[in-house]
């Protein structure tokens, strides 16, 4: 097996030894539960409210759009996970396909995205504030609330410390609860207080225009809420028969989660009291949306279940998030972005414990400045979309370099990959200037970090690495520029929908350049 020039090879003795310590014990059921649990977390508790505030009833369309995007990107991930199973594979594939500059920039985004688990911890404490108001006040965690979230992060890390079998068993049990309570919520809200007129009254179906549907995708937490389907792929190195189990787990978890989210959004829209709509959908405000609706509809027992599930659902997602993030950090160490010591897999548990400890520190850092759920998820959603964007390029590079290795699960990959790239780019742009002006400069810190790392180890040709990865740097800089000029919190120099069309045209122009750079500059990647 030959690795990309300058890329760590999966056949490297040190990497191979650590990869061999991973326990291949997860089947379709366990992997699907991991995907579903990672998707359905705090998002179901809050996203319906925030999406309705931004887009009104048209938020329903945002969930459909998010589901379609995830399905497209998932097909790319399915192909990669089935043919190139590896622990933390989503972090490794951009490196194999596009070199160390791309691998470093994407790696920085993944490392920052570790903070997304902080959103789940914030959601738990926010709902606990219903009983303990000193934990949550004025739309953010109090000092004691931050302390509680920090203690939760330590507990979840400890539960992940003892191996994948225990992890899979506990997560499957939690997933059952995470299905039953949201479904019961939809049924009871629709049966007790659903008003179909809310879908057209109070400004119509799209009171803030259809452009608000796009803003709701990131700003309303929808992208964040549907995100997480890649989790089974990151466990592909621990899966039995990944060519069969990974596709079934990824696609099955997406279908189940999107249907659940759609039901919750519709139920929320119809159950909101008329008194809360006096100032329109933008004026609707609940600290604990479904819990307060249940109380308003005299569903006291449902309210009690919801406040209990407010710990279970985001707690389950955070539990999976800690495990996934550990695989990401483990893979970043294999990529040499982090010290190789973090790549060590504990021989007894089969878990990368050192990587887990580092991630705990990152979660703590994110909890301190970001004390609200929406503050965290709007930025974190963007970070994850960069991972999907790079995966689309990697899939097409591998398809051209090694067409005989295709799994057969994704016919038409040559068309699906650029479409996935296009929509990932659009979703990043639709996040809005307020989020991108923070997220993209942070990610671009990967460029000087790449230069520093290259000067240290001098692996590969600097000129070749720059040629391979220049497309990503150019892509992010252009997106930052267009966002500043565009209609999504920008200067509105480029009005809608022309700004989105221009972004789409740019994406379709840069994609073949990115692919050619990987095919031309890189030799066949390691398996």
Automatic annotation (TrEMBL):
<feature type="transmembrane region" description="Helical">
    <location>
        <begin position="31"/>
        <end position="52"/>
    </location>
</feature>
<keyword id="KW-0472">Membrane</keyword>
<feature type="transmembrane region" description="Helical">
    <location>
        <begin position="376"/>
        <end position="395"/>
    </location>
</feature>
<feature type="transmembrane region" description="Helical">
    <location>
        <begin position="351"/>
        <end position="370"/>
    </location>
</feature>
<dbReference type="InterPro" id="IPR002293">
    <property type="entry name" value="AA/rel_permease1"/>
</dbReference>
<feature type="transmembrane region" description="Helical">
    <location>
        <begin position="248"/>
        <end position="270"/>
    </location>
</feature>
<feature type="transmembrane region" description="Helical">
    <location>
        <begin position="206"/>
        <end position="227"/>
    </location>
</feature>
<feature type="transmembrane region" description="Helical">
    <location>
        <begin position="101"/>
        <end position="129"/>
    </location>
</feature>
<feature type="transmembrane region" description="Helical">
    <location>
        <begin position="174"/>
        <end position="194"/>
    </location>
</feature>
<dbReference type="InterPro" id="IPR052962">
    <property type="entry name" value="AA_Transporter_AGT"/>
</dbReference>
<keyword id="KW-0812">Transmembrane</keyword>
<keyword id="KW-1133">Transmembrane helix</keyword>
<feature type="transmembrane region" description="Helical">
    <location>
        <begin position="415"/>
        <end position="432"/>
    </location>
</feature>
<feature type="transmembrane region" description="Helical">
    <location>
        <begin position="469"/>
        <end position="488"/>
    </location>
</feature>
<dbReference type="Pfam" id="PF13520">
    <property type="entry name" value="AA_permease_2"/>
</dbReference>
<feature type="transmembrane region" description="Helical">
    <location>
        <begin position="141"/>
        <end position="162"/>
    </location>
</feature>
<feature type="transmembrane region" description="Helical">
    <location>
        <begin position="58"/>
        <end position="80"/>
    </location>
</feature>
<protein>
    <submittedName>
        <fullName>APC family permease</fullName>
    </submittedName>
</protein>
<feature type="transmembrane region" description="Helical">
    <location>
        <begin position="500"/>
        <end position="519"/>
    </location>
</feature>
<feature type="transmembrane region" description="Helical">
    <location>
        <begin position="438"/>
        <end position="457"/>
    </location>
</feature>
């Amino acid at each position: 097996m030959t690795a990309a020039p300058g890329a760590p090879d999966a056949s490297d003795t040190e990497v191979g030894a650590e990869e061999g310590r991973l326990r291949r014990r997860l089947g379709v059921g366990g992997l699907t539960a991991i995907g579903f649990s990672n998707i359905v977390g705090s998002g179901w508790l809050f996203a319906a409210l925030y999406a309705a505030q931004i887009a009104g009833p048209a938020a329903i369309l945002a969930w459909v759009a998010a589901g379609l995007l995830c399905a497209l990107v998932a097909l790319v991930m399915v192909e990669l996970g089935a043919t190139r199973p590896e622990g933390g594979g989503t972090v490794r594939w951009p490196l194999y396909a596009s070199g160390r500059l791309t691998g470093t920039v994407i790696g920085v985004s993944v490392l920052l995205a570790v903070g997304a688990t902080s959103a789940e911890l914030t959601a738990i404490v926010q709902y606990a504030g219903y009983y303990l108001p000193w934990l949550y006040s004025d739309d953010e965690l109090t000092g004691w609330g931050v302390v509680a979230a920090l203690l939760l992060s330590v507990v979840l890390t400890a539960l992940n410390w003892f191996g994948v079998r225990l992890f899979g068993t506990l997560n499957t049990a939690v997933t059952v609860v995470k299905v039953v309570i949201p479904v019961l919520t939809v049924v009871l809200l629709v049966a007790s207080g659903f008003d179909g007129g809310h879908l057209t009254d109070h400004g119509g179906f799209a009171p803030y225009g259809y452009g608000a549907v796009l803003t709701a995708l990131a700003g309303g937490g929808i992208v964040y809420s549907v995100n997480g389907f890649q989790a089974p792929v990151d466990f592909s190195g621990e899966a039995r028969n990944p060519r069969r189990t990974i596709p079934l787990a990824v696609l099955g978890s997406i279908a189940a989660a999107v249907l659940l989210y759609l039901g919750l959004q519709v139920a929320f829209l119809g159950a909101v009291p008329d008194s809360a709509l006096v100032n329109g959908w933008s004026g609707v405000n609940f600290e604990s949306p479904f819990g307060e609706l249940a109380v308003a509809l005299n569903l006291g027992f449902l309210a009690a279940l919801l406040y209990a599930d407010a710990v279970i659902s985001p707690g389950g997602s955070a539990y999976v998030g800690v495990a996934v993030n550990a695989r990401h950090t483990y893979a970043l160490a294999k990529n040499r972005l982090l010290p190789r010591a973090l790549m060590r897999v504990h021989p007894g548990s089969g878990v990368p414990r050192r990587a887990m400890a580092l991630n705990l520190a990152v979660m703590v850092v994110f909890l301190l400045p970001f004390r609200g759920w929406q503050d965290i998820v709007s930025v974190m959603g963007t970070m994850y979309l960069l991972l999907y964007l790079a995966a689309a390029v990697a899939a097409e590079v591998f398809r051209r370099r090694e067409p005989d290795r295709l799994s057969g699960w994704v016919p038409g990959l040559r068309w699906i990959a650029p479409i996935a790239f296009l929509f990932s780019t659009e979703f990043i742009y639709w996040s809005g200037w307020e989020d991108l002006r923070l997220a993209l400069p942070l990610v671009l810190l990967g460029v000087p970090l790449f230069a520093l790392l290259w000067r240290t180890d001098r692996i590969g040709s600097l000129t070749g690495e720059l040629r391979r990865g220049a497309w990503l740097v150019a892509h992010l800089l252009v997106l930052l520029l267009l966002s500043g000029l565009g209609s999504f919190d920008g200067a509105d120099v480029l009005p809608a929908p022309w700004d989105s069309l221009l972004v789409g045209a740019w994406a379709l122009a840069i994609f073949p350049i990115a692919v050619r750079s990987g095919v031309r500059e890189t030799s066949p990647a390691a398996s």
